[in-house]
Each structure stands twice: as structure tokens, then as C-alpha cells.
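Review form for a predicted model. The reviewer records the input and the model, then writes brief findings.
Reviewer: anonymous (R2)
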Amino acid sequence: MVPEREGGRVERTPAGATATGRPAATGATAAGRPRARLDQPRPPRRRIVPEWDPEAFGRLSERIARFLGTGRFIVWMTIVIILWVVWNVSVPHDLRFDEYPFIFLTLMLSLQASYAAPLILLAQNRQDDRDRVNLEQDRKQNERSIADTEYLTREIAALRIGLGEVATRDWIRSELQDVLKELEDRRDGHGVFPAVAAERSRGRDVDDR
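Model under review:
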């Protein structure tokens, strides 16, 4: 169709839009697939692998590692092993669940060790991370302390330089004592001060005239 002219202007329909002004539907939308919206977050996808909180799992591993490193765990494990062996040796054969050489007990201890080792390593890694963060914070704190100390040292040096040029009370007192001593020496040497002696001699000459 040829666009109509109104008042000498030609109205053109933008490409990809219908006559109503709406953009034309793409093939994917026309096929029925919902259009993705940019103003809303995507819904979470379903995962086959179960999700867990790494922080909570790390705290649990630290608790287990602390318990494994205590004497209480060794005592309880010894009691369980003794009861296990005594039960499978002393009770009738029908009630025994682990005959000699106690293969099931060995399997359980191996399983416990195989789980304990990764848990201990995980707890150590978390402790190493905390130590690394603490060391970094200590290093920054030491740098700030060194910078503050250097600043205070420069300020104290500047104050010392400034005070070195200021007349103190002791210095003024010593200077006045030196001047007083010099005046006393002059008075003792001439009887009176030279200026006073000159004035007196001049007065005498005037009286004689």
C-alpha cells in the first residue's frame, strides 16, 4: 500500500511494527514460547544436585573436628570397640553380628577415618583462611600505627625546632644575671657608673662658674 499524504507529509510505518504501533510478533513468540522480561529476575533453575549452605557445613565440620581432637572422643571410641569385641566373643553365635577377625569393625573404623580426615582438612582450611584475614588486618593496623608514629615524630621534631628559637625563662634569667653582674663589676671598678660620674663632674663645673 502507498502511504497516504497528509499536509504534504508521508507517514511511514516503522519496520517490524504493525499498523497499531505494536512490534510484530517474532517466530518464537508466535510459536507459544513466553517472551523474556528484562525488568524481572529469572526464576531459579531446578538442580539435580542438592544445595547446601557452605558456611553451615563448615561450622559443622569444625565442631566435628574439635570433638575428634579431644580425649572424650578417644574414650568413647575405646569403650565402643571394647563392647563390640566383648559382645561378639562372649554372646551366643546367634546373637553375634561380627565374628572374629571383626571385619565389620575394621570397615566401620576405616569409614570413620575416611570421613574424619576430610572434615579435619576442611576445618584447617577455614582456620587458615581466618588466620590469613587476621594477619592482613594486623598488617594494615601495623602500617597505620607506623604512619601515625612517623607523623608524631615529625611533629615533635618540628616543635623542638620551634622551641629552640624561643627565649625560655631560664635563658632570660641567666642573661639578666650576666648583665647585672657586668653592671656590678663596672660600679666596683669606677665607684659609680660612668654616665653618673660624667653628669656629676659637669654639674660641678657649672657651679664653679
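Findings: The CA atoms of residues 28 and 34 lie 8 Å apart.
Further findings: The chain is about 65% helix and 0% strand.
Recommendation: see findings above.
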